[in-house]
Amino acid sequence: MEPIPSNTEIRKEIKNNAEWKLWPQILVALSISFGNMIIGLVSAYSSTALASLSQLNSTVYITIDGDEASWIGGLMPLAALLGGIIGGPLIERWGRKGTSVLTAIPLFASWIMIALANSVFTIYVGRTVAGFCVGVASLSLPVLLAETVRPEVRGILGLLPTTIGNAGILVCYVAGMYMDWSELSYFCAIISLPFLITIIFVPESPRWLVAKSRDEDAKTSLQRLRMCRITVESEFEEIKQVFLESCGPAHASVKGSDFYPSGVYYIPMMVALGLMALQQLCGINPVIFYTVYIFKISGTNLNAHVCAIIVGIANFFATLTANVFIDKVGRKVLLLISDALMFLSLLVLGTYFCVRDIDQSLVDSFNWVPLASFTLFVIAFSLGLGPVPWIVLAEIFPLKIRALAGAVVTAFHWVLTFGVVKAFPYFITQFGPDVAFYLFAGICVFGFWFIIKKVPETRGRSLEQIERKLIKSKKTQQTQEAISSV
C-alpha cells in the first residue's frame, strides 16, 4: 500500500504543476539569438570587408566607391527580399522551427563560399545566398520566439536576439580590424555553428501545431516550454479557442479587402508596415553597411575602424538597456524616445557635413562630432526602433494570417533596405552626406507622429488577447460608422 502524501507534499506538487518555468524559454531565446548573431554578421560584413577588398594586394580587388562595392552591400537585402516573400509559405508549410533549421546550413555554406572566392562574382553569389537565408530567418525566428514564450517575458526575451545580433555586428567590426575579407569570412563561418547545432533541439511552435490540427504535439511542445501541467492545459485551451474563433464563419477565408482601410486586418498591417518603413528610412542600414566609409569621408582624424568598433559597442549596450525597460515602460515609450534621439543625432550629423563642405577648417576642432553623433544615433536606434518593430510584427497579427502578413511585411522591409543601401553611395556622391542625413531626420519627424497616433501598446498581453483587442476594435469602428451613416 502506497503511503498517503502529507499536506506539504501535496501543496508542493500543486505548486510545481501550476508554475511555469522560465529556463526552457531562455534556452529557446538563446538558440534564436545565435541565428540573429549571424544576421548581424551578414549585415556588418560589407562595412569591414570593403576596406580590405579595396587594397591593391587583395586577391579580389574592387574600388570602394564603385558599383561592385554597392552590389556587395546591396545584394544581401535584395536576396533577403526574395527570402522574406518565400519565408511566409515556408513557415506555414514546414513550421517556424522547421524553416529556421533549413536556413542554418546555407548560411554556413555562404561564408565558406565567400572565403574561398577568387572573383567578385563568387562573393556576389555568397552574399546572395546569405541574404536569402537572412530574409527567411528574419521572419521565422521572431515568429517562433513570440509563439513559444509567455507574455510576461516576451518583451525581454524578444529583445535578447537583437542584443546578440548587435553583438554580432560588434564582433564583425573588431575582427575586421585584424582580418582581411577572406579570413573574416572563415571566422564568421565558425561563429555560425552554434545556431546550426542548437536550433535542432528547439520545440516547434505550439500555435502552428494547433493550426495544423496536431493538438497532442502542441501540448507536448507546451509542456517542454512551460514544464508544468496546469499552465499547459489552460494555455492550450486559450490558443485553441482563439484559433477556432478566427476560423469561424466571419473569418472563413482571408480576402484582399480584409487589408483595406475598411478591412478587419487593416490596423495590424498598417502598424507593421509603418514601423518597418520608419525603421529602414531613418538611415540605419547605410550607417551599418558603410560605417568605415562614412567615417573616412567625414574628415575626422580618428581611425575609421576604431570609430566603427565604438559604434558597435554602443549598439550592443543600448540593446541591453532596452532589455531592462521594454517590459517596464512598454514598446511605445521606447519607440518615442528612440525616434526623438535619432532625429537629434541626424540633425547634428547633417549640420557637421554641411559646414565641412563650406569650409573644412571650421570643423577641424570638432572632429569628434561624427563619432558622437553616430554613437548617439545607434544607441537611440537600438533602444527602440531597431528591435521593437520585429517584436510588434510577431505580436499583432492573428495566427491565421501571421505567416502571410509576416511575409508581406518582411518583404517590404527588405525592399526598403535594398533601395536605401544601394542608393546611399550614389546619393551622397550626387547630393552630399548632409542632404542624406537631413532627409533621414525629416523621416524621424513623421515617425514620431505615427508612433503616437497609430501604434498600440502590447506589453504584458498574450498573443490571443492582442488578437481579440485589435479585431474587436476594428469591428467596433465599423459598427459605429454603419450607425452614423443611417
Q: Which structural category fits the helices and strands?
A: mainly alpha
What gap, in angstroms, lies between the N and C termini? 75 Å
Tell me the number of strands: 0
Query: Largest beta sheet, briefly?
Result: none
Low-pLDDT ranges: 4-18, 478-486
Cα-atom radius of gyration:
24 Å
Number of helical segments?
21
Strand residue percentage:
under 5%
Could you estimate the helical fraction of the residues in percent? over 70%
Structure in words:
- The protein is mainly α and 486 residues long.
- The chain is 78% helix and 0% strand.
- It has 21 helices and no strands.
- Mean pLDDT is 83; it is low at 4-18 and 478-486.
In short:
By secondary structure, this protein is mostly helical. It contains 21 helices and no strands.
Secondary-structure map with pairings?
Layout: H1 7-18, H2 23-53, H3 67-93, H4 96-115, H5 120-146, H6 154-178, H7 181-191, H8 193-198, H9 206-211, H10 215-226, H11 229-246, H12 266-281, H13 284-289, H14 291-297, H15 304-329, H16 331-358, H17 369-385, H18 388-396, H19 402-431, H20 433-454, H21 463-484
